Structure formats: structure tokens, C-alpha cells
Amino acid sequence: VQLQASGGGLVQPGGSLRLSCVPSGSIFAMNVMGWYRQTPGKQRELVASISRGGSTNYGDSVKGRFTISRDKDKNTVYLQMNSLKAEDAGVYYCNAQIRGIDSWGQGTQVTVSS
Q1: In angstroms, how far is the first alpha carbon of the chain from the final one?
Q2: pLDDT > 70: what percent of the chain?
Q3: Three-class SS of the chain
Q4: Do the strands 9-11 and 108-112 form a parallel or antiparallel pair, or are they unpaired?
Q5: Which of the four pLDDT bands, split at 50, 70 and 90, describes residue 92?
Q6: What is the pLDDT of residue 35?
Q7: Residues 6+ apart with CB under 8 A from 32
Q8: Which of 18, 20, 21, 89 has a CA that sits 20 to 30 A from residue 74's CA?
């Protein structure tokens, strides 16, 4: 599975960004799709995920601020990020899990700074 991620950029603290991820196959063919964040010196961590059935899961640090969703017609998974903080900065990777195999997008940089 190939994943095309987009939407990163520079935003001020308190601002919003929306990330998009388009897989090469149907989003409903994936067992789970999600977003992970990586910062220097740290392991890649789960930000949010959505299962084929629509169940969502969020990292503790983003609960109440970020929302993962999907659009069937656009075959896209979104990560809406609101009330961004400096600690939300990092490279965000789209992930898809299918048949026990993980696929990763190219990463999109999110910078939160005034």
C-alpha cells in the first residue's frame, strides 16, 4: 500500500491544521489507518487511529483537540488538529495496516511556533 500524506506546515500555538492521507487502495480495505508522530530522539508515537469499523483511538496528549475522520468519496483519512501546542510539532506519518502488514507514508512536517 502506498500512502500520500499532505497538509503539514507552520502554525502558531493555538492554531489548527488538517492532515490528509490517501492510500493507493480503498481506505475501507485497511484494517486500521492512523497517524503517528516522530520527534528527534523519541520513538514514533501514535497520535490517532481509525479502524475499518470506524472505532477511533487517540494518544492521551491529543484527546479533545485532534479528530481523525475519513471521507469515503475522497478515499481520504484526515487528522484535524486544533489548539496546537509546541509539543505537537514533529513529523507526522500516515500508517495503514492490512493483512498484518504496516505501510507508511512519506511524512509531513508540522511546526508549531510563534
Answers
A1: 37
A2: 100
A3: CCEEEECCEEECCCCCEEEEEEECCCHHHCCEEEEEEECCCCCCEEEEEEECCCCEEECHHHCCCEEEEEECCCCEEEEEECCCCHHHCEEEEEEEEECCEEEECCCEEEEECC
A4: parallel
A5: very high
A6: 98
A7: 49, 50, 51, 52, 95, 96, 97
A8: 89
